[in-house]
Amino acid sequence: MEKAPMYTLQLSCIEIAIALLLITHAKSTTEERSSHSNGTISCIASERSALLACRAGLSDPENPSDPTNLLSSWKGDDCCQWQGVYCGNRTGHIAKLDLRGPYCDIDGGSRQMLAGNISSSLLGLQHLWYLDLSCNIFDNIQIPEFMGSLHKLRYLDLSMSNFIGNIPPQIGNLSNLRYLNLETNSYQGPDYSSFSYSTDITWLSRLTSLEHLDMTSVNLSTIVDWLPRVNMLLTLKVLRLPFCQLRSSPGSLQLSNLTSLEILDLWCNQFHKRIMPNWFWDLTSLKYLDISGNGFHGPFPDGICNMTSIVELYLSDNNFVGMIPSSMKKLCNLKRLDSYMNNINGSVTELFHRLPSCSGNKLQALVLPDNNLTGSLPTTLVKSLSNLSWLDLSNNKLTGHVPPWIGESLSNLSSLDLSNNELTGHVPLSIGELTKLRQLVLDSNNLDGVMHEGHFSGEIPAEISTLFTLKSLNLSWNNFNRKIPEHIGALMQVESLDLSHNDLCGEIPSSLSALTSLSRLNLSYNNLSGRIPSGNQLQTLEDQESIYIGNPSMCGPLSRKCSSQTEPTPDHHEDASDDAVSVFLGMGFGYVMVLWAVFCTFLFKRKWRVLWYALWDRLYD
User: Fold this and answer.
1) Which member of 399, 403, 441, 561 lies 3.0 to 4.6 Å from 474 by CB, making a disulfide possible if both were Cys?
2) Burial track 281-301 (b if 16+ CB lie within 10 A, e otherwise)
3) pTM assigned to the model
4) How far apart, in whole angstroms, are the C-alpha atoms of residue 111 and residue 84?
């Protein structure tokens, strides 16, 4: 029993020691990081110092001599609250640094452009897994070699920031990397000194976790064995190598490891070989393939039939010859076919018959200008294209009429371009049913009017004024006559309007002044007359004279002076109104009497009636 107090004392000492240990740990943690009243974690002091050292090497390209505004939010003790800095919720370590600039964006928002040098102080951020320095202007510096020592990086984006020189092979040390974007700015000079390049990409094979690789515009012209290196990336899903000056495209791979690849972009390289055989036709997992502008030649490839997962297919600007293969009917997932500037050189009706014929057709874009397509568009639509939003058959040799089904069956169409063909006849009224249409381009054909209730007219269909979503309308170089539709001003979203080189007459509708979004207007070389309209938006348009040139009967500030019109004086306003009413009543009564006399004459004189209608038939002919 005497040992009990001693046991209790020992137990108390142990409890006190544990408590002191916890307090000490809490104190040391507090010294390294502080907590806000709302519970968020403050950054670690050593990492804050690393960021400040990094900022010291940067400069403001808009004001190089005064860096005070550079990353202005980077002040105070809590760097986790600084713009572009993100800390881990549990550890307080900086995990993400997003310093993407505004260079790539139409609207950069609050982002600030960075220039200068990238400091090796970034190595103080050893818990960093995400680094984005894209879209800045680090002119005339190479990608720093020390980047390869940020071993925890899983995401690295250095794109579009004007880096030059050799890509350091140390990047291959980032074995945890899943996303790598080294896209450089466009080709800028004849030697290696003015752009980003690589003469050896063996370092790629060490990035065993890589899923996304973008080396757009990086010069790889000296590398022959680029494909075997890429083939070692077993987890790769996205491969973008456009404008890389690649010259070799093997016919096949003995053992393809790219079974997960979904996006392959090889646009605008220098392969210059037959399209079949080629290694990429065996990639059945592909959903996106762009081989445009590579000098491929030969018949349209039958290998397309293997790509049953394909969603977007870009074949443009090569020299493929002949009709698209009938096997394309099997591509049930195809949403976009883009094949401009090839040489299909066949019937456009046959082409439509070879489009995917699966139930629930998914095709959204059919872009086939400059292909020597011939013949008339099919009179009826054999298969459903109800999801089609973009149809471009411009610069071909199409003849015949614009079929009504374009307006009746393509209800989702937002862009229609049939320009530079040999289409004739009228514009179907069903065009007015395309309520989602944003661009309508029918210029440089022989279109000359519209059929309305069985009567032919050479006028622009008034139904076009109901296309309220339209942003671009081009009907130039046709044979339209009569007046511009009175309600053309209802197209409130239109930004570009071209009705030039027709035979339009009459005055320009005053409603045109209501087009507040209009930035381009061309009404030249018609037979328009009357006063050139005024309006706030119309007066802001550039090159005003060219808008109305070739309309000799127009008058106004940009042409001959309009004849002055006598305005009624205020003292006789009521008398003038009374006189006008009397005149109009008299004219109306006389008009009715003349019509009645003509009607009675035609009613009882059949010969006169026949001669009258024959005369009007000749006038219309």
Assistant:
1) 441
2) bebeebbbbbbbbbebbeebb
3) 0.81
4) 9
